[in-house]
User: Fold this.
Amino acid sequence: MSIKRKPLQFNLNGSDVAVFVNDGDNLLNVLRRGVGDLTPKYGCGQGGCGACTVVIDGQTKLACLVLAETVEGRQVETAASLAGGELDPLQEAFMDHFAAQCGYCTPGMLVAARHLLNENTNPTRGEVVEALSGNLCRCTGYEPIIDAVMDVANGAYSNRRAGGGS
Amino acid sequence: MTVEILTCPDLGQAKRALASDKSARFFGGGTLLMRAVNEGDQEIGKLVKAHEPAMSEIRVSGADITLGASVTMRDVLDRDDLGFLHDAARSVGSPAIRNMATIGGNLFAVSPYGDFATALLALDADVVLADGMRGRAMPLADLLGGRGGADRPIVQAVSFRRPSAGEFRFRKVTRVHPRGAAVVTLAALVPQSGGVVRNSRIAYGGLENRPVRADRVERALDGQRLDEGGIARAVSVAADGFQGRTDSLATDWYRLQVLPVHLKRLLLGDD
Amino acid sequence: MTVEFRKDLFANERDDDLNEIGKATRRQDILGHVTGRSPFYDDHQFDGLLHIKCTRSPHHHARIRNVDTREAEGMPGVVRIIRGADIPVNLNTLLSLLDFGLDDEPVLAVNKVCYVGEPVVAVVAETEQQAFDAAAKVRVDYEVLPHVLDAEEAVRSGAPTVNETYPDNKFEFHDRFDHQKLRYGDVEKAFARADHIVEGRYQMSPIEQAPIEPNGCIAAPETNDRFVCYTATQGLFFSLGTTAKVLDMQSSRLHFIGGTVGGGFGGKVDTLTEPLAIIAAKLTGRPVRYGFDRQDEMQISAPRGAEVWYLKDAIAADGRIMARKFTGYFDAGAYTRLTSYGVVKCTGHLPGPYTIPNVSSDIYCVFTNRTPATAMRGFGITGVDFAIERHMDKGARVAGMHPAEFRLLNAYRDGDMKAHRRLAKNCALVETIQVAAEKANWQIGEEYRRMTSMTGGGGDRAQIPETVTDVGIKPAGHTMEAETPDVRPGQSTPTMPGFERPAAPAPATPPAAQPTYSGYGASALGGIPARSASEPEALRSQPPAQPEPPKAEKPAKRQYSRYSSIGRRR
Assistant:
């Protein structure tokens, strides 16, 4: 059997992790099966649905399209970073707004939304739509999700600490 | 397929690796190749990675602009002095895709992808191919038309001249909003002198397998005013000579039907 | 988003101390969703997890002449190759669990493939890539056959036989009809006397449910001689029962865990992955994942089936619909699955929420070489409702009425008899249209604004009319129930019959000496080509794994179940 196993070290949600990967492995599989972070999901393997959205060195990326070995030494953040003790205001807002039904797109949505609000504290509704344009949802029709993000952006959850993780 | 990763110290070695193994592919941003790998594509056995500093550079020198092949759509959007390319860069996938998708990769994307390449084609861009020390320049049209001559070219950079204000237009037609793959993408460079169009470049993406120039439209625009009357003949020949293609988004018939409508809107600056 | 409550409607039927509706509440599972902890099937870790990828048909329709797995067997990482012969009971239909329909679908194809993507061989390997690579090296020799992708073409004489269990490409209802009938009153008499006749043809393509989570499951041996299976299915007990049958295993050995579904919309009601995953776990002794990727989900997983509808209305001068006749074709794709039931469910819905004194319907469950179809959002109903509502608009135009008024005039009311011989109750169509008209600023007449669902129904409209059937006239007031032996006097059992281990199914009886069609299209001489003497027996033979059919009589009749009206008559 000629599978090469390469070591890979990176920072995941504030903690250093190390794992062996095969050539050609995508980051989504490595996160889920290699490291055990099950929050990013497989929806398409094509970068089209956004269910695997993660943040790498401060930029959103689709883990299913990231060659795992390219994250050597980098900072990777997944939806698991959101709840650091308390829930992120976005998580509370999603729950209040019924912004999840089956829940499968939700981790990716939250990563994209949290990233938006970190970069832009006062987005317009159009900017929210643009930021989430790579995250597909088959259940909610999107409006509850956008409402939840706008609510957080407008300060409705400002008594709560924003963001967890690192 | 189970793939092997080959990391090369320079593009020369990468080129040799590609030449010696037809299952090898040059790895850019990964947005197209990783999809194929994920789906078990049996044609791809090796991913060749190589990077040289010039590939990540954006160089603006007067009106000459050079974008390295590894420059991402996001990198273009971050540059205010590349504002005329922002519509094209923003049209390439979602925000996360734009963080990953490269200029070089887009040149090799098969329809319905390849929107940035369509813009570059209308800008009459040259590609700089990795070839020894200096690289070899070739019109993008030749690369896209498969007339490059080189076997498995590796693109190092693309270069073009900055258009004058208002000369360059871009329009991507999708079924899904705000993001979707192209039904058809149109890019146009319409320089004017003495109130009429001279030496225009019109490019279509998504219509055929790769971006193409619409020579008949370009000839029909020459010497015309950029108003409804002036462009009428050009619009009437918009689809001439093209077959269109059918995929899950649209049929060849549909693409050819809507093409003149969108060409007209593009040329008149309508939304 | 605020909700407007129309509490003026049906006010006296309702207790308005609403405890849940209109009050902000959180889904009981949403904390798991927003923390990424909701346990979808793939969110379970197993050591030594193996992966299944299948070798699938590239053709719509082809005979399998040979399968060669030797090269695949030797590929890196391959642990086991599974073929049709490895499946203990390699012919099934989903609703055999309810004793409805004939077994027609293999888990892995042996004699022929009937749709693009039909699985022929399953490869179990250490990694997904290795499974892909080995599946690509399985060599299948196909003899391509003519195919048919349109339901109306499939039922024409000369069409290729898609599904060997139903050589005429039509499911058999009640052991004697090639379609499901509904008869109520006398449509032909009404048509003869009609002031207006309105006809229409309506069609709908297949629609893929496209949940973000594709179909899939992980199966693993447990230490108590059971197999655990985490699955995305919407029909956990369907999948468990089907697996028990096709793998010839006691259902008590199957430990199915589901209920966390990443979007279903009907696209996860079929048993698409569990049997193969469990038999792979059994044969390898290891956990096995069989998950569809996005390509599989879009092409191979079951979509909502295509439909074609013909409607014909008789409309009186005052706008009342006096008769409605339906002919419908449900395109089941290559195998029955749930479409047989969808047809019956649809029949019970006709003629839509309108009181029409004469109704007739023939609906066919048709086999084509499309991907086998399944349920989706309003299964069996949505397609015909599109047809009905478009037809209502046509009728309104012919009658010279506003489409809202036309509907209000014909809407059912409480106490009206419906075509399937149940009285309508709790009707609300009238009020719905009135509120819609108000919101849309449609100007509808005063008398229409004063209509209610609770007035104007019943009386003559509650009577079952004398009904013309294909075999004679049933007197007024007559229901079909009295004639159906499945119906017994006394209390009906409100729950499903107890599951008993199914006896080995009787093989599908080959139809008596029917001519076979060697190709699509009439022969040069016209007519039906005679059966060719050289026609290989393989056309009708059972797959090799089929057990010997029992000579004993069928299992004792189960207790009356609420599905008996679609069950087989004994």
